[in-house]
Every structure is written in C-alpha cells, then in structure tokens.
Fold:
Amino acid sequence: MTQTKKDIRALSMEELQQFFSQQGDRPFRGKQVYQWLWNKGIHSFEGMTNLSKATRELLETNFVINHIAVDQQQRSKDGTIKNAVKLFDGRIVESVLIPVKDRTTACVSSQVGCSLDCLFCATAKLDRMRNLNADEIFDQVVAIDQQSKAYFQRPLSNIVFMGMGEPLMNYNNVMESIQKITSPEGLGMSPKRVTLSTSGIPKLIKKLADDKLAVNLAVSLHSAIQETREKIMPFSQRFPLVDLMESLQYWYEKTARMITYEYVVWKGVNDDISHIRALIDFCKKVPSKVNIIEYNAIGDDAFEQASVEAINQYQEFLTASKITSTIRRSRGKDIDAACGQLANKQV
Ligand code: SAH
Structure:
C-alpha cells in the first residue's frame, strides 16, 4: 500500500520546527520552510534554494505541497480576469481579479458552492460541496497577485471575500487564511485591505468582532424589512434583522469599524419608499455606509433590476439623511464574473 504523504501546509510553524528538531537539524529550518510556503507562496521543495539538497530531499520524502491550479482564465473587455481554480481533489471554484484605477482587488471564494439560499445568486443554486482549506484560499490570493504583477505591473492591493460561499460558515479556515495573508511571516498585507462579506450570521459576526482581526465587514442586506428579506434570502428566517443589528452594534463597540451594507434594488421587491425608510432607520443604528450594487442577471427572470429613477431615489434619500452611499457598476459581466454570477460555468 502506498503511504499517503502529509500536506506540509497543514503544519504550523511550531510543528515544522519540531519536525526539524526531531531530525537532528536546527529548528530555524522550520522558519525558513514556513517562509517559502507562506511568504513566497512556493509550490515545490526544489525551489527552496536556501536549503541543502539533502534537506529538500528529506522534505520530498515526507511531505507533499497540495496546491491549486488555475485551470482556465477568462478576460473581460474591462480588464477583469476570472479564474476557474482547480483544487487538489479536482473540484472547481472561481476567483476574480478586478482592476480599479491604480489598484487591483482579488475576489476570492471560501466554499465550493454555498449552503445558503439567496434566490438571486447563481452560487446558491450549487450545493455546498465542501469548505476550502486555508491554503486553498491563500493560493487564490497568490495567483491573483502574480497575475496583477504580470498584466498590470503592480501587486495586489485589496482582497474581498465575495466569491463563492459564505465565509463565516467556514470560519476557522477563513480566519487561518487571513492570518497567513496578513502576518509578517506570510504575505504581510494589512488587514485593513481585507473585506469579509457575509450574508449576516449574528453569532459569527460577534465572534469575528471578538477575534480582533481588524478586517473590514460588509453585510449583504438587500432589505431592512424582515418580511422582504426572508422572501429573497430564506435562511434569514433563522437570523432575523433584530439579531443581525444587535451583532453589528457589538461589532462596532469592539472594533470601531464602520460597516458596509451591500444592497441591490429590484423592481417590485424593494424599490418603494417603505424600503428606503427602513434602510435609513437601519443605517442610523450603527455607523455604516451603503453600497448599491447593480443586479447581475443569473439566467432566470425571477428578478429584475429596478429603474434608474428608483435607484437614484434611494441615493437622494440616503444623502438627505447623511448616510454615505455609492452606486457600484458591475465589472466582468461579459464573462459571468460579477457579483452573484460565479457558478462554475465552463466556456
Ligand atoms: N456569501 C457572501 C459573499 C458572496 S456574494 C455574502 O452573502 O455576502 C457577494 C455579494 O454579491 C453579496 O452582497 C451578494 O448578496 C451579492 N449578490 C449575489 N447575487 C447577486 C446578483 N445576481 N447580482 C448582484 N449582486 C449579487
């Protein structure tokens, strides 16, 4: 029987140091290897050039480095790049590089599919197959950083957890990936450049506040009226808006970081004045701003983007109430790379 080797990236720095001590080598080697894996994002032992040949062979005998591979790349006419990413077990997720002026944002996936059931989202139509490991999330970031350098001559500047999946439902692995992305031994990116987007799971928002990771929080609100929200995001029956608000107030108390509400306005769903009023009341309860995002069609006609007038009316009322809002145009629509369109459609 062939013995399956352990994935070296499942080991912490301490465990790597221990491994080398047990081999009669200096624990410092563990740190060197850790830096190759998490600072340089390298995928082969052979490339660890400051280790002796014997050490590289020792690693080769004992471990593997499971890693993702960009299986297919599609480029939008607006510069957006969508990657179909193959995981080590052959499953596919998608990640997106979004060039914005002189910055590059990576939109990463946290689960294969999604366990939530937002009616307007293409990913929700796929079953949740499994959570991504921390390294699979990390690798998406490294791949997009490399693409940004190659195509735009600049490193990646921001990361948003707005790809496939609900990041808070894969809490531990997402936290570990953020730790590897932000720690000095890892990629050393500032947590201020990381935004976690959640459909709103109160208990886990509180946990995130307690964990003090200093990342930004975005909440997919779409309606501040419970009855409407339950219709379009059925899981929210279990997580009512009152509980969501309580968790957001807790978040602000603990972190002093403003919350962003993501909001799509649909014809006949939430484009009337009662929804605008409810949103304003909701926003006043905790420091926040609103990102009005364009609806991206997902191939059925259940939802339709509201009129320009209705969307402008939202912004006028929000502004009059001193609530900051932006109207965000979608990127990468022509390649199904925009919000809510990630569904592993192959070309
Ligand atoms: N599960 C997380 C992150 C993934 S989606 C969350 O719910 O926040 C990223 C954003 O796209 C969310 O605000 C989501 O509500 C929104 N979205 C989903 N489907 C969309 C669609 N078809 N058009 C526009 N935005 C959509």
Remarks:
- The two ends are 39 Å apart (CA to CA).
- Residues 69-335 form a domain with the TIM Barrel fold (CATH 3.20.20.70).
- The chain has a mean pLDDT of 94.
